Amino acid sequence: MALEKAAAEPKNNELQKVARLLGGTRILSRRLRSALDAHELLVHGLPGSALDHLLGQLVFIQKTDSLEKAVGMSLRTYQRRKDAPSKPLSQDQSGRTWKFAEILSKATDVFGAQAEAEQWLERPAIGLDQRRPIDLLATPAGVELVEDYLERLEYGVYA
What we know:
Layout: H1 2-21, H2 24-28, H3 35-44, H4 48-57, H5 65-71, H6 75-81, H7 91-111, H8 114-122, H9 133-136, H10 140-154
Helix pairs in contact: 1-7, 7-8, 7-10
């Protein structure tokens, strides 16, 4: 039991970091205690204001083509949605927004600061065949490549 709790703590810390990027309990209207809580939230759709909060924190990532690649929403659709911030995102948009927040959180841990993480997402990466990590977020396979590469960077395995 104690071993399970110790193993769950890092996961819970990661969950809380992602939740904070999305506005925390103030915007999400609940505290996420487990991955199942996150799943339920995403099934019902993140509040549109969670995406607003996430994008409002970005410093270097351009909110144009990168937005579409990262969260699967065109800038025009995002602008239309701003008129209805309480309307939940679709399951797909919620899942992609959550995944983008997860990757941003992980990259922030790896690089030590969110500004550095954002710059890394926007620059071509040698380990990704000179592709920009943000561009790869458009597909599940690309997301997996970015996550694997971040993990290699975290542990000092660059090739």
